[in-house]
Amino acid sequence: MTVTDTLALRIEKLGDWDDVSPNFTQDELFSPDTIGKVFLIDYEALLKLNRFRGHVGYPLLVNHGGNHLRGVRSAKEQMGLVKKGLTSALSSLHLQGKAFDLTCPNKSTKWLKDAALEFAWSCVGYYPNSNFVHVDMRSTELTGIQTYYEVT
Ligand SMILES: [Zn+2]
After folding, report:
1. Model confidence over 138-149: pLDDT tens digits?
2. Domain 15-150 -> CATH class
3. What share of the chain is helix, strand, coil (3-state, %, to 5)?
4. What is the pLDDT of residues 25-76, one digit of tens each?
5. CA proximity to 25, closest of 61, 74, 66
6. Distance 124 CA to ligand 1 centre (A)
7. Domain locations in the chain?
8. Across the beta sheet with 133-136, what order do the strands follow?
């Protein structure tokens, strides 16, 4: 492998959207202000999200209930959340297509949190006073430890 090889950007089509994501449309996973622009979603995260939907056996909603529930966020949207005080993070795995905020209309937020932990998302964020659970694909290569946080 040469230096040129390692610097080359390679984009592969890994499958048609409906085959890769049978449970979630693009409109559900991308912010409205990403329309017409190039935004990437993490392939492994997308597969895991769809497997998780099968695991829980109930519909899961993304992009539901306001701006803060998103799959892929634009930088503009992230800055809007910072200005509203809904997050302090200028960077977020939502910007990298590696995080999802999920609601399960059939079940409690606590139930969804327990299901996400059982399913071994690398990080699970729980907001007892809210209607969603954050899951993401942060790297656990260094520690191999699942991250969990609770925001009250
Ligand atoms: Zn989130």
Report:
1. 887 666 788 898
2. alpha beta
3. 35, 15, 55
4. 998 999 888 888 888 899 999 999 999 999 999 999 996 656 556 789 888 8
5. 61
6. 9
7. 15-150
8. 99-102, 133-136, 123-126, 147-150
The position carrying tokens 């139930």 is 111
Residue 119's pLDDT band, with cuts at 50, 70 and 90, is very high
Residue 7 has pLDDT above 70, yes or no: no
- Please say if the pLDDT value at position 104 is more than 90: yes
CA of 2 to the centre of ligand 1 (A): 38
Q: How many helices (H) and strands (E) does the chain have?
A: 6, 4
What's the CA-to-centroid distance between 72 and ligand 1, angstroms? 10
Q: What is the pLDDT of residue 77?
A: 86
The residues, any chain, with a CB within 8 Å of residue 112's CB and separated by 6 or more, are 56, 102, 103, 104, 133
Spacing, Cα 9 to ligand 1 middle (Å): 28
Give me the residues near ligand 1 (ion), CB cutoff below 5 Å: 99, 101, 134
Q: Where are the beta strands (DSSP E) in the chain?
A: 99-102, 123-126, 133-136, 147-150
**What pLDDT score was predicted for residue 15?**
84
Query: What is the spatial distance between Cα 7 and Cα 112, in angstroms, rounded to a whole number?
Result: 40
**Which residue is it, tokens 């990437």?**
40
